[in-house]
Automatic annotation (TrEMBL):
PROSITE patterns the UniProt entry points to: C2 (PS50004), SMP (PS51847)
Biased composition regions of type Basic and acidic residues, renumbered to the chain: 531-544
Species: Regulus satrapa
Name this polypeptide is given: Extended synaptotagmin-3
Every C2 domain range: 173-300, 318-459, 624-745
Length: 745
């Protein structure tokens, strides 16, 4: 599948194929000279480890596509996303104390992000390369000698999932590998950049979930749904709501977001069962849209299932260096984030007997063998705790000056009263080698809310220190920019011109043409926006005209007089063809240019003329049958194609008694009656105004292969001889930029 912004790089794949044998030779040397000694030093059981065969095979990794980011990011960097696929025939065998263990074939695929920064004015022009996977890559290992594997001491606990976790712990966000290309390059800020922000997810409720519980394969009961929410490697599970297909959770989760664009929020719903939990649908939301929109409150359709919608409220919290924002949240939500860059420690005691509260107290130990073990340098790791959350660092073996080089993030509820607790422990003896407590209120004394220093360790020797950098940032919900037209889900929710469609008692929102210089929102349009919103993605099919949406427009900024009018009494249209209907013409001159192509309703740039090729035209001429105004865009956050039927003009009547036009839409090649979309019927008019929104829930790559078939039809009595079709138009979606969207006559 070829995406418009992902480039195919066949030349790079050809280079890889040619260079692969040479890379294999380098790796064989690395395995023998670097990896083998490291494995032997890890454990007593692995001292006899020897690589007997190392062959990287003929098949090399393939790069399916590259997406380059240059505009959305800092000017001093280039970001590349590489879609990597490796189905390798490599063979690696090793002997460990009479046991033979090996790998015969590996499959790996995922998206690897490569960041080149900072760009320099002298050679080598790039300061460093940073690599990481956005999500955990898919990994399959074909083991050789697996029958003996379970008997090997020290390795008997290994499995594919453990190895995947091992890779994730080093290569998946927030972990990064940074390789400096220029000497004396300080790469600390590249390895541990400050996160982009925090996403607060309010998991509210779901509706119409599929029934999964069955009894004796026949009677279907109600399911017991719960949700798994995931961003990168962090996953949370909601509570289980028993026996309910319309569960209400009302739970809140917070995730640190390290890379935007790139990271997504994944939500999977499951039915809890005693044996195996059944899958009930999933949802993928691009966080870049949430970051731009600030707040998204929406019903999302579930994919990979037959029915169900999920109601989420998403808030983007930016990280600000402002102490005034640190007021305590009454609901118990986080108000700040603490980032701990753990560098290393100095002069750790060999054991906790050697020093007691800083005073030297040698212990006489009679057992010589134990004494030797005691005199060995410690293998230390760090436990970091804020509130009730504890995180653990990696272990540095046999060093009194360990270097961890890791970053940790903690959510903070009250910066004035909470503390960071540090405990350094010895892996061999599980004893404390030193502790430290840092009150977060110390950070508030610094204008940048940052501490970068050595901290004296308690319950350790007098010259034992730990070096850390602590950064505190307040979480701030920014108000949405009124000048910005919301993208994705919210494209139809706000903007200067708001159309409210009333369907029964339910309020729905569509978005007609936007104004180029967006004036401040009037009270009317703000009131319209504050109405309860529920968009369950259903068609706005209305059979009779009495229930048809009443089109009402409020054009904000047309003056106070206009703002005070009842929306129902506003002019029925603000289209250029009938500009005379609106009192203030200068504003309409401004409306001719759309502010943003990401908005749902940009103004006409060309015309869709209704074709007359297959119609029986009474006058016998090949003349246009009128025009239809459509707004089409792909809402990536909802995974749907949104088609807004604005209106028609200059339709050709099919009879003397007038026409009652409506619009019918198919997404070809699907012509099933169930997937047909249809507007309401407008009585006795050749210039109907609909402003009705329809959605087709398909992936972008599927939509790109489809064609929109749009017909304007005349609603006539069943036995009537009048012509039913007034005109039709086909739009090939493969030729359009659907993410930006388009609005045309």
């Amino acid at each position: 599948v070829h995406f418009p912004d992902v480039e195919r790089v066949e030349w790079l794949n050809k280079v890889l194929v040619q260079a692969w044998p040479y890379f294999g030779t380098i790796m064989e040397k690395t395995f023998k000279e670097v990896l083998e000694p490291k494995i032997r030093a890890k454990s007593v059981h692995l001292k006899t480890c020897t690589f007997t065969k190392i062959h990287f095979g003929e098949k090399c990794p393939r790069i399916n596509g590259i997406k380059a980011y240059t505009k959305e990011i800092d000017r001093r960097q280039v970001t590349l996303d590489l879609q990597i696929c490796y189905i390798g025939d490599c063979e690696i065998h090793m002997d460990i104390s009479k046991f033979n263990l090996g790998v015969k074939g590996v499959q790996l695929y995922g998206t690897l992000r490569v960041i080149l920064e900072p760009l320099l004015t002298d050679a080598p022009f790039v300061g460093a390369v940073t690599l990481f996977f956005m999500q955990k890559p898919h990994l399959e290992i074909n083991w050789a000698g697996m029958s003996n594997l379970l008997d090997v001491p020290g390795i008997n606990v290994m499995s594919d999932s453990l190895i995947q976790d091992f890779i994730a712990a080093r290569l998946v966000l927030p972990n990064r590998i940074t390789v400096p290309l220029k000497k004396n390059m300080n790469i600390a800020h590249l390895r541990f950049p400050v996160p982009k922000g925090v996403i607060r997810v309010h998991l509210l409720e779901a509706e119409n979930l599929v029934q999964k519980d069955n009894f004796l394969g026949a009677i279907r009961g109600k399911s017991d749904p719960y949700a798994l929410l995931r961003v990168g490697t962090v996953q949370y599970r909601s509570k289980t709501v028993s026996r309910d297909l319309n569960p209400i959770w009302n739970e809140t989760f917070e995730f640190v977001v390290h890379e935007v664009p790139g990271q997504d929020l994944e939500v999977d719903l499951y039915d809890e069962d005693p044996d195996k939990d059944d899958f009930m649908g999933s949802l993928l939301i691009g966080l870049v849209d949430v970051m731009n929109d600030r707040t998204v409150d929406e019903w999302f359709p579930l994919s990979k299932t037959t029915s169900g919608h999920l109601h989420l409220k998403l808030e983007w919290l930016s990280l600000v260096n402002d102490q005034e924002k640190l007021h305590e949240d009454k609901k118990g939500l986080s108000t700040a984030i603490l980032i701990v860059y753990l560098d290393g420690a100095f002069n750790l005691p060999k054991n906790h007997f050697e020093y007691s509260n800083g005073e030297y107290g040698a212990k006489k130990i009679k057992n010589n063998k134990y004494l030797k073990k005691m005199e060995r340098e410690p293998s230390s790791f760090v436990l970091l705790t804020v509130g009730n959350k504890t995180q653990k660092s990696k272990t540095c073996n046999f060093s009194k000056d360990p270097k961890w080089g890791q970053a940790f993030t903690f959510f903070v509820h009250s910066a004035h009263s909470q503390s960071l607790h540090i405990e350094i422990k010895d892996k061999e003896r599980d004893s404390a080698l030193g502790t430290s407590v840092v009150c977060l209120s110390h950070l508030l004394k610094d204008p940048n809310m940052t501490l970068d220093q050595r901290f004296q360790l308690d319950h350790s020797s007098s010259d034992s220190f730990i070096k850390m950098k602590l950064v505190l940032r307040a979480l701030n919900v920014e108000e949405p920019d009124p000048q910005r037209v919301k993208a994705g889900v919210n494209a139809s929710k706000s903007g200067p011109v708001c159309v409210t469609e009333k369907v029964g008692n339910q309020q729905k929102f569509a978005s007609p043409p936007q104004v180029s210089k967006v004036p401040p929102m009037s009270k009317d349009s703000a009131a319209v926006e504050s109405l309860p919103k529920k968009d369950s993605g259903e068609d706005l099919d209305t059979k009779d005209s009495s229930g048809a949406p009443v089109s009402s427009e409020t054009v904000s900024g047309l003056g106070e007089v206009e703002g005070k009018q009842n929306p129902e009494q506003c002019p029925p249209s603000a289209l250029p063809s009938r500009a005379g209907a609106v009192p203030t013409l200068p504003v309409l001159q401004e409306m001719r240019v759309a502010p943003s192509v990401t908005s749902l309703g940009s103004l006409p740039s060309s015309c869709f003329e209704l074709s007359s090729s297959n119609l029986d035209i009474h006058n016998g001429t090949e003349m246009p049958l009128g025009e239809i105004q459509l707004t089409v865009r792909y809402a990536s956050i909802r995974q749907s194609l949104v088609v807004l039927v604005n209106g028609c003009r200059n339709l050709v009547p099919s009879s003397n008694r007038g026409v009652d036009p409506y619009v019918r839409i198919y997404l070809l090649p699907d012509r099933r009656w169930t997937s047909r979309k249809k507007t309401s019927v407008k009585k006795k008019t050749l210039n109907p105004q609909y402003d009705e929104k329809f959605e087709f829930f398909e992936s972008l790559e599927n939509v790109k292969k489809r064609t929109l078939d749009i017909a304007v039809k005349n609603s006539r009595p069943f036995i009537s001889q009048e012509r039913k079709e007034l005109g039709k138009v086909h739009i090939d979606l493969s030729q359009e930029d659907l993410i930006k969207g388009f609005a045309q006559w």
